[in-house]
Each structure stands twice: as C-alpha cells, then as structure tokens.
Amino acid sequence: MKRPPPAPNDKKRYWLTFDARGTTQPLIWKMSKRFDVIFNIRNSSVTDAVGIIAIELEGQAETISRAVRWFKRKGVQVDPVELNTIEG
Fold first, then answer.
1. Contact at 8 Å (CB) between 56 and 39?
2. How far apart are CA 71 and CA 84, in angstroms?
3. How many CA within 13 A on the CB side of residue 56?
4. Which of 14, 66, 72, 75 lies deepest, with the highest CB count within 10 Å?
5. Confidence class of residue 83 from pLDDT cuts 50, 70 and 90?
6. In the chain, how many H helices and how many E strands?
7. Is the torsion defined by CA of 47, 75, 35, 80 positive or negative?
C-alpha cells in the first residue's frame, strides 16, 4: 500500500524580537533541534539590550505554527513580515 506524498513545505517570514535575556540564549538553534523546520536568517540587529531578527521558516505549516508558539512561550515577540521588507 502506497503512502500519500507529503504535503509541500510552506515558507513563512517573521520578525523575532528578543529582550536582553533572550539575546544571550541560543533560541533559534534550540528551535531548529526541536522542530523539523529549516531556518534562514534574512536580517538582524542585536545589541546587549534587544535583538531583532528577520527569519524565514520552511516546513510543514503545522510544524511552523508549533515553532512560532514555542518562541512565544520563550518570551520572544513574533510578528509576520511584510514580504517586500526583506526581499533580496
């Protein structure tokens, strides 16, 4: 019996905003180990006080949603990106 083919991957882009505590933790690495999601950092600005990262997540839609919820539970502000703001 054949299995149905897997659903195609989605790509979603977000702004992640970290507080001072979050900038010292490897949260993106931890997310990538916990969830079957490919990440691509598109832009970033990190200081001792705040980190702002534009990230693209690729994977199954439900897995991306779970990764976003995980970031939020870790205290990261997650906002969708307007597509043209980080093109290129």
1. yes
2. 23
3. 15
4. 14
5. low
6. 2, 4
7. negative
C-alpha pair distances (Å), 39 with each of 48, 49, 64: 23, 24, 10
Cα–Cα distance list, 31 to 2, 7, 15, 42 (Å):
32, 21, 15, 17
Q: What is the pTM of this model?
A: 0.83
Read off the amino acid at residue 22.
G
- Structure tokens given for 40: 């691509």
What number of other Cβ atoms are within 10 A of residue 14's Cβ?
A: 21
CB 61 within 8 A of CB 1: no
Both tokens of residue 36? 């079957």
- Type and span of the H or E element at 66: helix 61-73
